[in-house]
Amino acid sequence: MRMFVTKELPVIQMAIKKLQTPIPMTSDFDFQGKVGSSLSKGFGSKRITIDELAAKIKTTEFDKIERLTLSCNNLSDQDISYVFEIVKQVKPTVVDLSQNRFHGIEAKWSGNQSNDNELDNFIREILNIEEVKYVNIVLNPLASIDRKDFFDTLTDSQWGKLIFVPTSSWLIAGAWKSVVEVKNPSQE
User: Fold this and answer.
1) Which of 23, 87, 105, 114 is the most exposed place for a label (fewest CB within 10 A)?
2) pLDDT (tens digit, 9 = 90+) per residue, 63-86?
């Protein structure tokens, strides 16, 4: 088990204390189910919010972090900028954002005709970080046929880092067909 050293360990210890659950100081940052959305501030939650976590991590230096797990936290589109700040700071190999509430469709639903979608842009930025090898978005609304517009904008390099598997209910309900051209390696 690799250990990491921080220059400001008391800051992280305060964050861990607020989480009410000890987090092992390993090469993995496992915040699965332990972080609240920035939208939950002021509701009496004892969990640290994603914006508070981002602020604490921003002031701390780390050795290499292999895996950043932020799954099962009900994070929403409004939280993605804080997720990006954390990923940019710790530069993990694997980013697990599975089982959150990332949609990326607020621009379309709000009547904003702009195609400039903040969530999509931040996900692409996370995929562009050289140290990041995999980004897991499984079981998010973003990982659905409704977001084909997002998947169409990804480069080959970004596709190679993205992990997404839509739920079978989405496949059945949407009468999915292949929307991604599958290249046969023997034809290249």
Assistant:
1) 114
2) 788 999 999 999 999 999 999 999
